[in-house]
Description:
Layout: E1 11-15, H1 25-29, E2 35-37, E3 42-44, H2 54-58, E4 64-68, H3 81-93, E5 98-99, E6 114-116, E7 137-139, E8 148-150, E9 158-160, E10 168-170, E11 174-178, H4 186-199, E12 202-204, E13 221-225, H5 234-238, E14 242-246, E15 257-259, H6 266-272, E16 280-282, H7 292-305, E17 312-317, H8 322-331, E18 336-340, E19 349-350, H9 351-356, H10 361-374, E20 382-386, H11 392-401, E21 405-408, H12 410-416, H13 438-441, H14 446-471, E22 486-488, H15 493-499, E23 502-503
Parallel strand pairs: 11-12, 11-21, 12-13, 13-14, 14-17, 17-18, 18-20, 20-21, 22-23
Antiparallel strand pairs: 1-4, 2-3, 5-19, 6-22, 7-10, 8-9, 15-16
The chain binds iron/sulfur cluster (SF4) (2 copies).
Amino acid sequence: MSISHSIAPYYKVMIERDSCKKCKRCTTHCSYGALSYNGERIIADNSKCVACQRCVIMCPAGAIHIIKNESFLPPHGNYTRRIRNAIWAQSGNGGVLLSAAGNDREIRSIFDDLLLDACQVTNPSIDPLRETIETKIFFGRKPSKIDFKRDTMNPNKICLKTEFMPNFEVDMPIMVGHMSLGSISYNAAMAIYQACKELNILAGSGEGGLHPDFYEFGSNIITEVASGRFGVDINYLHNAAGIEIKIGQGAKPGHGGHLPGEKVNSLISQTRMIPKGSDALSPYPHHDVYSIEDLAQLIAALKEATRYKVPIGVKIAAVHNSAPIAVGIVRGGADFLTLDGFRGGTGAAPRIIRDHAGIPIELAIAAVDERLRKENLRDEITLVAGGSIRYSADLIKAIALGADVAMCSMPVLIAMGCRVCQQCFRGLCSWGIATQQEYLVKRLDVDVARNRIINLFHSWNEELKEVLGAMGIDSVESLRSNRDRLRYIGPNPKIAEILGVKHAGE
Length: 506
Ligand code: SF4
Ligand code: SF4
């Protein structure tokens, strides 16, 4: 690239020369090569800095500051810096821009425009410190009604006639989203699975197979069958609490997956069952699924393969026609449905898809819940919703809108140390999370990361209980689809109408 077309860096690394001890620690910790030592002092190459903060935290002298380099461009409300930088980058490299860690456009969050109701005089609240508030849920298909019959051996005895589909119990309505081994490191995956087992909640395996070391956590893992079928064999299917057919994901609706060959080391090659160094490409569609009937056959095949012992679900990206698709999926025999909204994160996604395709999860949850109710199908499926569940307030509102379980990934990465630098696709994560480089993976202490995830979700669950208590609800299952306990304060009445939520004051 010629000098006249180079892009001024986003960040500026400032080093306090008087404080610097010249220990060179920052140069070894910067995995992006932004810092070096020239024999006299530390030199910063601002163009390589991604503001991951590793050097700032590791500097024993507190001598490093990363600031935003924003003074060089004349302001323009339409041709923003982001748009100009994209044009410069593409006119230089001629390629599709990649990014990671979720849609970062400044689009108003609908969750932020929703307020929760609270009890006052006529309907007493519940004190969660003194009374039990249940946050446990049962994951899987429920019967729409329960029938009884007389016991054939003893006609005086009444027994259950309805056959229950496989369900399992989780202690919190929270699930860690699907992040494959490959997109995240072994240590990050280990920390997540250990935390989920300890909390008795669920984690997704992603589409990269399940390393045998993780089989012991299988009763807390939903494994994925994606279009690439990576790592799918009978052991994989039999070592899972549930199996999810991945049709789409929120970060890149209508898109497949791509793990570059350089990330496919022996560990990943063994887990994905592909040759070392080969690109792991998932086709955009499943080449055996072109209709709901095809999908129903795949669901049936997986149920058969797992002897009807585990729930089988389907994941779709939240798009404008999610509701009729959801009906087809339930009628096709799925036991759970995962809806992934357009703010969802991933290790690598074309920016054009990530930022512009799909719909917000809030609208998709409400539309799907409403449609399933109308078709009398709602109780037949567990609805998992993800795509920017940032904190407990989002989780609670997602459930009130109609989800059974809220799924999130970024908060888990952040709890482990991620600084949201959005460079996951480069495999150089300086915090040892989104990388396969051994020297970087070692930086993530599994025990510390696990405990931080446990603490995070424990806090969310306590906050969930606080809110349920304030609403006078003693079980999270009674909050589900309870949209009357939400009020809208945003600017767009059409959104309130689609959500089925009244405006504040109504
Ligand atoms: S880590 Fe801090 S003290 Fe050490 S060389 Fe870098 S800037 Fe100087
Ligand atoms: S996981 Fe690592 S590379 Fe990805 S956003 Fe977080 S800190 Fe950056």
